[in-house]
Write a structure and sequence with these properties.
This protein is α/β, with parallel strands linked by helices and 225 residues long. Helices cover 37% and strands 22% of the residues. The chain has a single domain, classed as Vaccinia Virus protein VP39 (Rossmann fold, 3-Layer(aba) Sandwich), CATH 3.40.50.150.
Amino acid sequence: MDNITGRTEEPGTGDALADARNRYLRRIAVYRSFGYDRPAAVQCAVDRLGAFEGPVLDVGTGQGLLAVELARRGCEVVSIDVSADEQQVGVVNARYEGVSHRITFLALDARHTGFGDGSFGTIATLDALHHLADGPATFSEMRRLLRPGGKLLLAELTAEGFALVARVHATEGRVHPVGEVTVASAVEWFTANGFQLTGLEEEHLHTTAVLTRTQESVDPRSRRP
């Protein structure tokens, strides 16, 4: 992993750091006013993993909630997102939560990360599937990066969760884009390509699936037609 470039840095000034943190806290407060506790939902999703090994790849940084929760549990985490600008709130939150020494934030395309085969013991993604432009390409890369026997966590909003997020965005004059990739379509792809589904739950406005990569699975990109 040492040869990977694209590390995302914190905003440079104290005012910028405080502003990024305050934006995050305001958003959390808005969700709570709608009756939804985002940090609790993240904790619950990670609980579903049970025992897991690092390092952990977090696909889709967002505000860093998943990366921070994984790091709190003692893991070394690499969190990737296509936009370094979008990652900055996550970078700041990791510092405020005291876990920045365990998280590396990188601006990378999840379809082409540059990491070596089997670099990670666990891969996790939260509320990012619906943003994927090419689900199968991303899934194939995740499969390549996860060592045999490793765990995969897929957590995505339920229909009720998406409706709540749409209401929150509407209060800000924005529209929340929702693509075609779902937990169901992701599970279908992974179980067809050497993964075993070991858990599927719906709680805290999320559908959470846990899968394990089997020892004998073959990278679909290496198959001959």
